[in-house]
Write a structure and sequence with these properties.
Elements lengths: L1 H12 L3 H27 L9 H7 L8 H21 L15 H30 L6 H19 L11 H25 L23 H11 L2 H4 L6 H24 L6 H4 L5 H14 L4 H28 L7 H4 L1 H26 L10 H25 L10 H18 L12 H8 L1 H18 L7 H24 L8
Helix pairs in contact: 4-5, 4-6, 4-7, 4-17, 5-20, 7-8, 7-17, 7-18, 7-19, 8-15, 8-17, 10-12, 12-15, 13-15, 16-17, 18-20
Main location: membrane
Protein name: GPI-anchored wall transfer protein
Subcellular location: Membrane
Length: about 500
C-alpha cells in the first residue's frame, strides 16, 4: 500500500521535474552574477563619474549622416536669422570694456544696455536655431524657406525711406567676415551638447566613416575660418618655428588637459573620431606648426595646399583609407591615433587653401582697396562657392565619398563650399538699411577659441550631472536653452570686461 502511494506521488511530480531543474539553474546563475558584481564593486575604490559612458558612446557611433542639401539649408537658416536680427535693429550703445575712470552710473547704464542687447540677440538667434535643430528638425525645408521669405519681407519694409543698397567699404566686409566666423562657431557650440540628447536627430551627428552631417563640419570650419583672416593671409611677417611653438604651446597644453580630464572622470570619447589619445587641439597645434615650418607666401599657399591635398588623396585611394577606417589598432601611438595623425595633412592643405582665398578676397595688395567693395568680394565669393560645390559633387561621385574621419579631398571641398556659401549669404547684409552687427556676434568674434573652450566645459558639466539619454524632450530643450543663454552671457561679459583669449 505504501509502495503504491509513493509511486503515485512520484508519478504526479514527474512533469514538474524539468521546471524545477531550470529554476534552480537560473537562481544559481543569478547568484554567481550578483556575487561577481559585488566583488568588483568591493575591489573598485572609485565610483565612475559617468556610469552611462558606453551607452553614450554607442549613441553617437555607426551613423551615416544626412543629405548635403539639408545641411546647406540648416546653415542657410542660421545665416538668415543673423540677417533678420540686423533688420530688427534695437542696438543700444557701442560695446567695449569698462574703463577704470568711468563713474559707477555710466558703467551701470552701459551694462544694462549691453545685457538688454544680448537678450534680444539670444532670443532672435539662439532660441529659434535650437528649435530648428531639435523639435523642428523634421521641417527643415519648410522652416528654411519661411525664414528666407520673412527676411525678404523685412528688407522690403525697411526699404521705404532708405537707400536699398548701403555704401560698401572695408568695414562692412570685416563685419560680414565676423558674422560668418561667429555663425560657424555657434553651430559647433550648439551641437556638441545637443548631440547627447535624444531630441537631437542622429543624422546631424558625426558620421562613422563616409557621409555628410552637420557636426562633420565643425573642426573643418574652425580651421578654415581662422585661415581666411590669419597672419599669413594678411601678409604679415611670417612666424619662425620658435615663435610658432610658443604660440601653439597653449593649444598643446589644452590637448593634454582634455586628454587627462576625460580619462580621469571616465568621460565618453568616440575613438573613431580622432583616435585613442588625439583631439581637436592637437590638430590645431599641428597645422600651425607645419605652416610655420614650410614658410611660403600667400600667393603660393594655394598651390602648395592643392598639392598636399591631391597627394594625400592619392595615398587614400591606394589603400590608406582602408587602414584609417578599420577598427584594428596596434599598441603603438601611431596606430592608436591613426585618424588624428593622418588627417593633419587634409586640414593643413585646407588651411593653406584658405590662406590663399582670404588673401585674394580681402587682403591682396595688387588689388586697389577702393575697388575691393562688398559687391566685388561678394561676386567672387559666390563664384568660388559654386566652383567648390561642383567640385564636391564630382569628387563624391567619381573619386571618393566625403569622409570627415580621413579629411579627404571631397571633405575639404565640402567645407570650403559650405563656408563660402554662409559668407556669401551674410554679405547680403548691405541690402539691409541700417543693419549693424550684434553685440553677441562681436563678443564671440573676439573670443572664438575661448567660447569653444567654455562650451566644452559646460557640455562636460551637463553630461556628468545628468544622464542625457534619459532626459525627456521638454527637459532637454530647457537645458539647451539655458546652456545657450549662459554661454552667450558669459562670452558677452568677457568681451564687455575686455577679456580676450586668442593664441592661433
Amino acid at each position: 500500500m505504501n509502495r503504491d502511494y509513493s509511486a503515485e506521488i512520484i508519478k504526479r511530480i514527474k512533469p514538474y521535474e524539468n521546471n524545477c531543474t531550470n529554476l534552480l539553474h537560473n537562481l544559481t546563475t543569478k547568484y554567481r552574477y550578483i556575487s561577481k558584481l559585488f566583488r568588483v564593486s568591493m575591489d573598485s575604490p572609485v565610483k565612475s563619474f559617468n556610469p552611462s559612458k558606453h551607452l553614450k558612446e554607442q549613441f553617437v557611433s555607426n551613423l551615416t549622416g544626412s543629405s548635403k542639401l539639408e545641411i546647406s539649408l540648416l546653415l542657410t537658416a542660421l545665416s538668415v536669422l543673423i540677417l533678420i536680427r540686423r533688420s530688427i535693429g534695437f542696438n543700444y550703445v557701442s560695446t567695449g570694456p569698462i574703463k577704470k575712470n568711468d563713474n559707477a552710473a555710466v558703467c551701470n547704464k552701459n551694462l544694462r544696455a549691453y545685457i538688454a542687447e544680448l537678450v534680444v540677440d539670444s532670443t532672435c538667434i539662439l532660441v529659434p536655431y535650437i528649435l530648428f535643430l531639435t523639435v523642428l528638425a523634421e521641417w527643415t525645408y519648410t522652416t528654411a524657406i519661411s525664414m528666407i521669405l520673412l527676411l525678404l519681407f523685412m528688407m522690403a519694409v525697411k526699404r521705404n525711406g532708405s537707400s536699398f543698397l548701403q555704401e560698401c567699404n572695408m568695414d562692412s566686409i570685416r563685419a560680414n567676415i565676423s558674422s560668418y566666423r561667429v555663425s560657424m562657431m555657434l553651430v559647433t557650440c550648439f551641437c556638441i551638447l545637443a548631440v547627447d540628447f535624444k531630441i537631437f536627430p542622429r543624422r546631424y551627428a558625426k558620421t562613422e566613416t563616409y557621409g555628410t552631417s552637420l557636426m562633420d563640419l565643425g573642426v573643418g570650419s574652425f580651421v578654415l575660418a581662422n585661415s581666411l583672416v590669419s597672419r599669413q593671409a594678411r601678409g604679415i611677417s611670417n612666424m619662425t618655428l620658435r615663435n610658432a611653438l610658443c604660440s601653439t604651446s597653449p593649444l598643446i597644453f589644452l590637448g593634454f588637459a582634455r586628454l587627462i580630464s576625460t580619462t580621469s572622470v571616465d568621460y565618453q570619447v568616440h575613438v573613431g573620431e580622432y583616435g585613442v589619445h588625439w583631439n581637436f587641439f592637437f590638430t590645431l597645434a599641428a597645422v600651425s606648426i607645419l605652416t610655420s615650418i614650410v614658410n611660403v607666401s600667400p600667393n603660393q599657399c594655394g598651390i602648395l595646399g592643392s598639392f598636399i591635398l591631391i597627394g594625400y588623396q592619392v595615398f587614400l585611394s591606394r589603400g590608406l583609407n582602408e587602414y584609417l577606417l578599420s577598427e584594428k589598432r596596434g599598441t603603438n601611438v601611431m596606430s592608436q591615433n591613426k585618424e588624428g595623425i593622418f588627417s593633419i595633412f587634409g586640414y593643413w592643405g585646407m588651411y593653406l587653401v584658405g590662406v590663399r582665398i582670404g588673401s585674394y578676397l580681402f587682403f591682396e595688395n595688387n588689388v586697389d582697396t577702393a575697388l575691393r567693395t562688398n559687391k566685388w568680394t561678394r561676386t567672387r565669393v559666390w563664384s568660388l562657392c559654386l566652383f567648390f560645390w561642383s567640385t564636391t559633387l564630382f569628387l563624391d561621385l567619381h573619386v571618393e565619398r566625403v569622409s570627415r574621419r580621413t579629411c579627404n579631398l571631397a571633405y575639404v571641398s565640402l567645407v570650403l563650399a559650405i563656408n563660402l556659401q554662409v559668407l556669401a549669404i551674410l554679405m547680403l547684409s548691405n541690402y539691409i538699411p541700417g543693419g549693424k552687427i550684434s553685440a553677441m556676434e562681436e563678443a564671440f568674434n573676439r573670443n572664438l577659441l575661448g567660447s569653444f573652450l567654455l562650451a566644452n566645459i559646460l557640455t562636460g558639466l551637463v553630461n556628468l550631472s545628468v544622464d542625457t539619454l534619459l532626459v525627456p524632450p521638454i527637459s532637454a530643450l530647457a537645458i539647451l536653452f539655458a546652456y545657450g543663454f549662459i554661454l552667450s552671457f558669459a562670452v558677452g561679459s568677457a568681451d564687455f570686461l575686455g577679456i580676450k583669449l586668442k593664441f592661433w
